[in-house]
Amino acid sequence: MKSASGGQEDHKEIFQGQLEELKLIIDDLDTTSVTIFGDFNANLVNPSHPHGPLLRRFSDENGLVISSEQLLPVDSFTYISEMRLGETSWLDHCVSTQDGHNIINKMYVNYNISFRDHIPVVMSLGLDRLPIVEEEFNDVAPKINWEKYDTVKLREYSLMSDIYLSRLTIPNEALECRDMKCENEGHKSQIKMFYENICKCFVKASNDVLGVNNNKNKKFDCKPGFTEYVKDLHDTARKRFVAWREANKPRDQND
């Protein structure tokens, strides 16, 4: 990843746009096991760093894991300043989907090697543990044009959803598990079933209140809270991504 440097406001906007492009690339892949490695120029340890909070919020709201933060010691560093002798920072990170994070065997900073001012981070992946991707329930769920319904209809849909959701049994033990590499098959099946039942509740409510839309060719595109603040950047990133993909995904010659 090539990130904008510096702490000016325009650089923050560029950084937000780059994060949006990464999310588009992840969404376009036909795998759920994704790890993105590189110089994010985001210091998560220093709260005053302009990019650190943006990366953390982006990861949290898109269900991503900052694997480098989870797996490396808190005193790690990957950057040595050439301008300020002796000053170090942790700017290189690995951001993963949950499945991508789960196949990481180990990760470490190789302090014996440096490329100019950066120190490489090394990781090994357990490709034998890649999950089998099953058909998503969302792939066959109808997509609804919410804009054509008034507040009365939306309120009715909300109430009907609450009724169906209130009937679900919540798998508290599985949801409260904090083991990032949990191998409990019971937890996995309970969470999967819980997720599918939640989806079914919303579909039932929409069928009861709004009717059925038979257009099943498009996936539901959820834009979490992060993109509410960068909608224009999201649209721009989408156009750039489509153009890049149609050009057979050329690589940056400067990388």
UniProtKB/TrEMBL annotation:
Domain of life: Eukaryota
Lineage of the organism: Eukaryota, Metazoa, Ecdysozoa, Arthropoda, Crustacea
Record's protein name: Endonuclease/exonuclease/phosphatase domain-containing protein
